[in-house]
Specification:
alpha+beta; Alpha-Beta Plaits; about 25% helix; four-stranded antiparallel beta sheet; 2 helices
Length: about 80
């Protein structure tokens, strides 16, 4: 599993379900490829399967989460 960081969180009113919807809907990942989603005030951390990490980052950076454009980056392992 890898961990992408999404800028935005409780302050931006983004919930874990919104991130899961963006990854499974626009990113076309399966629910088995997405792990725990940790929502903090200013950032969201998502556990994603290693084989789907590039696809997840592309979906988050090019798509929208709850109608908002977000920035995502992979954290170093």
């Amino acid at each position: 599993m890898t961990t992408p960081q999404i800028l935005g969180g409780r302050i931006a009113k983004i919930r874990a379900g919104d991130v899961l919807g963006a990854l499974c809907g626009e990113g076309s990942l399966s629910k088995e490829q997405v792990g725990k989603i940790n929502v903090n005030d200013f950032a969201i951390y998502v556990a994603v399967a290693r084989d789907a990490s590039k696809k997840a980052l592309a979906a988050l950076n090019n798509g929208k989460v709850k109608g908002k454009t977000v920035k995502a980056r992979a954290l170093a392992a």
